[in-house]
Amino acid sequence: MFKPFMAGVLAASLFAPALHAAELTTLEKRWLEAAGPVLAYSQQLKLPLDITVQPQPRPGDVPLAMGFDKGRCKLVMSLRNNPDAETVLAGIPEAQQGALIEAMAAHEIAHCWRYAQGAWHALPAGFVEVGEERAADSSLLAASKAMRETRREEGFADLAALAWTRRSKPDEYARVYQWLAGVRDRVSVPRSGHDTRAWVRLAGDGAAFGKLDAPFDNVDGLWREGLLATE
């Protein structure tokens, strides 16, 4: 869970007066506009979501991140004064970035959806862990468990982002998929928290998600399949 330096909590709507567009940078406005369809969907789902803008990000902060505080989800934007904010989009023309930003937003909103359902770090019904890790240092076991739980949630969120893209921008699916697969292929530490390759590989064909109407619900089958491959 992050501990953001908050510039202010903003209502999760591009049209809410609390967004004070004049106070946002051009870059922040562009990212919010691209994320707009996902934010609107979060309102339809009645997710407890706030948007926070960091005026001075910390080293290594990613452009979008999700955290939780007192029962609410906090979508944190770390674009302002962040020289690495758009590294993840390096080499992609600005005109082609919208679908990728929207997918990133869907990834984060999927985290909120899981949290709001009370399912955060929970395995799907009927799924039982097998095997037992051993280590002389209990802190190593705790770190391994935390990393495994993070990897599972990141795998779910990656699938949700792709399912959202198939629903929202089906003509862009192949391009978004190739970009996300490339991002995950560059993860430096295998089986780390963001090593979601086992899940991403399952979604090369967007048709594997089934129905389009509920993108977050429809990833359950592929998520389970990925869990079996990674445990």
Sequence-ordered SSE layout with sheet pairings:
Elements lengths: L8 E3 L14 H19 L4 E5 L10 E6 L2 E6 L20 H19 L21 H31 L4 H13 L11 H6 L17 H11 L1
Parallel strand pairs: 2-4
Antiparallel strand pairs: 1-2, 3-4
Summarize this, please?
The chain has helices spanning 26-44, 98-116, 138-168, 173-185, 197-202, 220-230, and strands at residues 9-11, 49-53, 64-69, 72-77. The chain has 231 residues and is of the alpha+beta class.
Tell me what you see in this structure.
This protein is α+β, with helices and mostly antiparallel strands. It has two domains: 9-91, no CATH class; 133-230, no CATH class. It is built from six helices and four strands; from the N terminus they run βαβββααααα. A four-stranded mixed β-sheet has the order 1-2-4-3, with helices on one face. 35% of the residues are buried. The model is unreliable at 1-22 (pLDDT under 50).
